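JOB MANIFEST
job_type = single_chain_structure
chain_count = 1
residues = 196
[input]
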Amino acid sequence: MKLHDTYLSEVIKEYKDIVPKVLCKELIEFFEESITFRIDDHRKQSQEMQLMGDPRPQAVAYKQILHDLIYPLGEKYERELHTLCHTDYMPADEPMTKMFQTGFRSLQIQKYTSEDKGYPAVHIESGPNHTQIYLAVIVFLNDVEKGGQTVFSMGGTAIQPETGKVAIWPTGLPFYHCGRKSESDKYILTSWFEFL
């Protein structure tokens, strides 16, 4: 008996214009003025920095602003998922983001240049070192005209980078994804909703 048709692509959500363009520009400038580290392995090539744990006053302020902009999307996202359930099987509980103590332990800014291969390794976010995470988040800090999409290989969808857009999806199977090579600089901020 088939009760409802929901596709993986329907639970990979995009929220446009969540982070103001001026803030995205400031975060890019802050990144460029900061000490960053290079990732260059079989999975990806990028320049990165972590806002969490950064004691500089500007970083502390950015952490709070980003939390205030992104965190409410967790509950919104979960409530939207509830609407995808068959009416006879709707979740009775409140969203996990509301029921439990959750938050962000990571706010990582990443830069991919046209010389970088991007993040071609198809992967999921969960694993033995990430048992407390339940939703993945990407904040796109700039527009990318060619390439740079986050591709969901089983979800049948790809997300084009647009300034201020936030993407959210579940961290585990079957949400395999990768980042396509960009033909221009691509800046993103990544995080996870996790149980604290």
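[summary]
The domain at 8-195 is CATH 2.60.120.620 (Jelly Rolls).
The helical segments are 21-32, 57-83, 96-99.
exit_status = 0
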